Amino acid sequence: MLEWRHHLHSIPELGFDLHKTSAHIADKLRSFGVDELHEGIAKTGAIFSKLI
What is the per-residue pLDDT across 24-33, written as a single tens digit (0 to 9) for each? Predict the structure, then answer.
């Protein structure tokens, strides 16, 4: 997780203009096996579900 934090802090995005950060998080969620991911909520938000 330390590597993730360093990566996210290396992305120069401010305020709610977080497109690269949002894409990185979405990629991580997919790699964890998230079953359903809806991106672009309020521009850079996401909603996800993981079915057990």
Answer: 989 988 898 8
